[in-house]
């Protein structure tokens, strides 16, 4: 994490602000692509969405992404196990995420996998899918029934749908997802990876409330910033503001307790929030040994600070007693 540059912070208008938020999609996929190229984890699909990063990413960033991908995947697989894949996943603000293809390779596809992002991001993702057989073939293979619907703004197959919508408007979101055969009675996992922080606390509360009141059996996984009121957090905020990117929801990212409380206040139960240093301490020792040998990490203190400023939060609702409340690291 670079130190903050000096000078006044420019203000962004609403369109510029949304454009800057959409730009974070690129940041996430470029960082994941770089970490994959160094060997942190395997993902043959990410290269279909992003060319190799021009600049190297620092080892602390790569390790952080490893813990993020591993942490989200650990909870997700626990959910798939509890539901025996008889479920659906809704990935909110999915960007260029490759989870659908990775789950298919592992024979772990849910009954249906949905992704939502801004229409412009969705159009970009669909363009890639249409032009790259390693992406389109698995969708065609997993599809059954009527013809697969794919145009420049949405994709609907029997196992995978991509929907263009603004998550700040949950009624519009529900209508669009239902057109793609969302089944509110199926156990549902909602994932938000670095997404809620770009909405105001009221908007993310509406989204969380909508999800909690719509799905009787569900789990929510949220990965994002935490402990943002200290000096390190302020530098992170300033660095993003310099790119016109405003963390509208940063107030909820003040502490682990605030993150947990938000889930409870908006209709979720069994809520947990842990920082990424803790997640790192839960990684299997063999994995830690392998990734720590990949690159020399000079800035141990910086790595620890970075990891203390991101967290994974999860919560569930379980009227069918599937045991979702037991899911933990
Ligand atoms: C930091 S990126 C993360 C992408 C992906 N979740 C990942 O981890 O690779 C944030 C994503 O959320 C999307 N996003 C943010 N606010 C949104 C909103 N209000 N409606 C739809 N998508 C949104 C952005 O377009 C972007 O793709």
TrEMBL record:
<keyword id="KW-0808">Transferase</keyword>
<dbReference type="InterPro" id="IPR016651">
    <property type="entry name" value="LCMT1"/>
</dbReference>
<dbReference type="GO" id="GO:0031333">
    <property type="term" value="P:negative regulation of protein-containing complex assembly"/>
</dbReference>
<dbReference type="GO" id="GO:0042981">
    <property type="term" value="P:regulation of apoptotic process"/>
</dbReference>
<dbReference type="InterPro" id="IPR007213">
    <property type="entry name" value="Ppm1/Ppm2/Tcmp"/>
</dbReference>
<dbReference type="Pfam" id="PF04072">
    <property type="entry name" value="LCM"/>
</dbReference>
<feature type="binding site">
    <location>
        <position position="68"/>
    </location>
    <ligand>
        <name>S-adenosyl-L-methionine</name>
    </ligand>
</feature>
<dbReference type="GO" id="GO:0010906">
    <property type="term" value="P:regulation of glucose metabolic process"/>
</dbReference>
<comment type="similarity">
    <text>Belongs to the methyltransferase superfamily. LCMT family.</text>
</comment>
<dbReference type="InterPro" id="IPR029063">
    <property type="entry name" value="SAM-dependent_MTases_sf"/>
</dbReference>
<feature type="binding site">
    <location>
        <begin position="166"/>
        <end position="167"/>
    </location>
    <ligand>
        <name>S-adenosyl-L-methionine</name>
    </ligand>
</feature>
<comment type="function">
    <text>Methylates the carboxyl group of the C-terminal leucine residue of protein phosphatase 2A catalytic subunits to form alpha-leucine ester residues.</text>
</comment>
<keyword id="KW-0949">S-adenosyl-L-methionine</keyword>
<feature type="binding site">
    <location>
        <position position="93"/>
    </location>
    <ligand>
        <name>S-adenosyl-L-methionine</name>
    </ligand>
</feature>
<feature type="binding site">
    <location>
        <position position="193"/>
    </location>
    <ligand>
        <name>S-adenosyl-L-methionine</name>
    </ligand>
</feature>
<keyword id="KW-0489">Methyltransferase</keyword>
<dbReference type="GO" id="GO:0018423">
    <property type="term" value="F:protein C-terminal leucine carboxyl O-methyltransferase activity"/>
</dbReference>
<protein>
    <recommendedName>
        <fullName>Leucine carboxyl methyltransferase 1</fullName>
        <ecNumber>2.1.1.233</ecNumber>
    </recommendedName>
</protein>
<dbReference type="GO" id="GO:0090266">
    <property type="term" value="P:regulation of mitotic cell cycle spindle assembly checkpoint"/>
</dbReference>
<dbReference type="GO" id="GO:0032259">
    <property type="term" value="P:methylation"/>
</dbReference>
<dbReference type="GO" id="GO:0005829">
    <property type="term" value="C:cytosol"/>
</dbReference>
């Amino acid at each position: 994490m670079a130190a903050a540059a000096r000078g006044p912070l420019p203000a962004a208008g609403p369109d510029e602000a949304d454009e800057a938020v959409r730009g974070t999609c690129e940041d996430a996929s470029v960082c994941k692509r770089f970490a994959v190229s160094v060997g942190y984890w395997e993902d043959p699909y990410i290269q279909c969405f992003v060319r190799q990063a021009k600049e190297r990413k620092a080892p602390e960033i790569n390790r952080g992404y490893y813990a993020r991908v591993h942490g989200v995947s650990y909870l997700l697989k626990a959910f798939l196990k509890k539901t025996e894949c008889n479920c659906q996943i809704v990935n909110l603000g999915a960007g260029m995420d490759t989870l659908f293809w990775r789950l298919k390779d592992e024979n772990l596809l849910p009954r249906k996998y949905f992704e939502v992002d801004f229409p412009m991001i969705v159009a970009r993702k669909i363009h890639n899918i249409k032009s790259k057989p390693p992406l389109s073939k698995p969708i065609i293979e997993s599809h059954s029934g009527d013809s697969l619907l794919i145009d420049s703004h949405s994709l609907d197959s029997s196992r995978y749908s991509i929907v263009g919508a603004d998550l700040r408007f949950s009624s519009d979101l529900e209508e669009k997802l239902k057109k793609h055969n969302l089944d509110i009675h199926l156990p549902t996992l909602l994932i938000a990876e670095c997404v809620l922080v770009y909405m105001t606390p009221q908007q993310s509360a509406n989204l969380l409330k909508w999800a909690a009141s719509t799905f009787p059996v569900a789990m929510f996984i949220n990965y994002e910033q935490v402990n943002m009121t200290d000096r390190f957090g302020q530098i992170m905020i300033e660095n993003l503001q310099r790119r016109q990117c405003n963390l509208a929801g940063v107030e909820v990212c003040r502490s682990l307790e605030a993150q947990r409380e938000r889930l409870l206040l908006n209709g979720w139960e069994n809520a947990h929030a842990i920082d990424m240093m803790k997640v790192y301490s839960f990684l299997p020792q063999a994995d830690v040994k392998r990734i720590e040998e990949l690159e020399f990490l000079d800035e141990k203190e910086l790595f620890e600070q970075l990891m203390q400023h991101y967290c994974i939060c999860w919560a569930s609702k379980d009227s069918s007693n599937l045991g979702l409340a037991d899911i933990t690291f």
